[in-house]
Amino acid sequence: MSRLHRENHLVSRVGWLRAAVLGANDGIVSTASLIVGVASASAASSQILVAGVAGLVAGAMSMAAGEYVSVSSQSDTERADLDRERLELATQPEQEREELTQIYVLRGLDATLAGQVADQLMAKDALAAHAHDELGISDMTTARPIQAALTSAATFSVGAAMPLLMVLVAPSFMLVMTVSIASLLFLALLGAIGAKAGGADIVRATLRVTFWGAFAMALTAGIGALVGTGL
Q1: What span, in angstroms and rounded, lies between the C-alpha atoms of 2 and 225?
Q2: DSSP 8-state secondary structure symbol assigned to residue 170
Q3: 15 in helix, strand or coil?
Q4: pLDDT tens for each residue of the chain, 231 residues long
Q5: What is the DSSP string of 103-155?
Q6: Nearest Cα to 180, choosing from 133, 143, 139, 213?
Q7: What is the C-alpha separation between 32 and 177, in angstroms, rounded?
Q8: CA 164, CA 19: separation in Å to the nearest integer?
Q9: Domain ranges for the chain
Q10: Distance of CA 85 to CAs 122, 136, 163, 209, Å?
Q11: How far apart are alpha carbons 77 and 16 in whole angstroms?
């Protein structure tokens, strides 16, 4: 008896993984940078904590709204392309069949076999065949606005909570250093987890996310120190 060989491809994770990594990374970097900037301006611990909490709430809502609008636009574009393709299949099926055939020819099939493949796929589900092979739209990569929005908001909150926790446990005279070092460690861990989940190079992803996090915190710390000195 034959057994089906099932494979779990990493590309199926691309929708939620992108939103999750982006949300958590932005939560750590933006909140840590805000805390470091305010702390560098010689603010009181209570003010730093209030600023951090406000940054967490505002950032989570901003991420959710931004992801929803962005991915909704992608979804609208996909839907418009599918509607156009559906109309073309209804009004000019022969041209659409030839278009699909040429796609397979360019991929390496001879013209006869390409035509047979196009005929069989269009007989089963013409719109699905054109969506996948002509437009590049599939179930695994299709836009999901609500999923992206909720994932981004949740992971942003988790990421932002990490540097906020350091404000509660670190002594005030070591606040900037503690938040900076802890946040860089959190970013490195996030980069490694994201790379592992996506099948990417762990070292490269970790270095990339840590470098840009350090750059952002150093920049805001410098600005905060300048503003604090000026005031």
Answers
A1: 69
A2: S
A3: helix
A4: 445 445 454 444 455 566 677 788 888 888 888 888 888 776 677 888 898 999 999 999 998 898 888 888 888 888 898 899 899 999 998 999 998 899 999 888 888 998 899 989 888 888 888 888 888 777 666 667 888 888 888 989 999 999 899 988 888 888 888 888 888 898 888 888 777 766 777 888 888 888 887 887 778 777 766 765 454
A5: HHHHTT--HHHHHHHHHHHHHHHHHHHHHHHTS---TTT---HHHHHHHHHHH
A6: 213
A7: 11
A8: 22
A9: 16-230
A10: 13, 13, 49, 40
A11: 19
Give the position of tokens 């942003």: 156
HSE (CB half, 13 Å, CA atoms) of 133?
Answer: 23
Interacting residues of 41 by C-beta distance below 8 A, sequence separation 6+: 224, 225, 227, 228, 231
Pair of tokens at residue 201: 């190079």
Task: For Cα atoms 213, 148, 53, give the angle at the middle one, nearest 5 degrees.
Answer: 50
Q: Indicate the residue type of 142.
A: T
- What is each CA distance from 127 to 90, 99, 111, 159, in whole angstroms? 10, 13, 21, 41
